[in-house]
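FIELD: query
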Amino acid sequence: MSRFAVPYLATGLLLGSWALGQTEQKTEPTTQTLVFPGEKHLKNVTMLTFEGENAEAYFDFSDTRLSFQSTHGSYQCDQIFTMNLDGSDMKLVSTGKGRTTCAYFFPDGKKIIFCSNIGNTGRGMPDFNLWMI
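FIELD: result
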């Protein structure tokens, strides 16, 4: 056995015996799950989307639907979708062209306002590269 193998072997045995003596420690939460007892939106957090990149979800005024931007499905640039709070009835509400963001419901729940670059380019993501001149 080479003189270099002995220190590695000894270290491995030492760490292995230490690891065998360790036990799993269960800890109780030190804080309340909800900081504000009246909180209604973060009380039961549930994953609703399982595809694409999804961001900026906003509640409607009746707290029954969400608007959000997503690259869901075949859309390579963010589009605006709505869905029920249980994840059902997902609908594309933007045109499917350009890039969209920041969708908010009007108080009546029938209209949504959002930003889009479709009027400028009609394409997906604009070129934001920096060039040294």
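FIELD: remark
The beta strands are 54-59, 65-70, 79-84, 91-92, 100-105, 112-116.
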